[in-house]
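Appendix B. Chain record.
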Amino acid sequence: MSLSAISSISKLTSCCIVAKDLSKNTMKLDVIFFEDKNKSSAVLGLRRDKSGVFKPVTLHFTSAKKYAKVRKTDVKEMKWL
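Structure tokens predicted for this chain:
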């Protein structure tokens, strides 16, 4: 995962999707952060491990329309360990 992707995630405010709001979740992600860039979206997917810590599972680009109709959650605070 690139360091610039992690630093830009901390600047996002309303681009977070939780697993319960996804109809299809084949990667079994718990949290998805995304940022729209013209026709594509940068996506960072996290999965919670057995100890409760969220770990990055995927970082990729996809169509900007993919998450257009999915409910988004506002991120108020984030702490990186």
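Further analysis of this model is presented in Appendix C.
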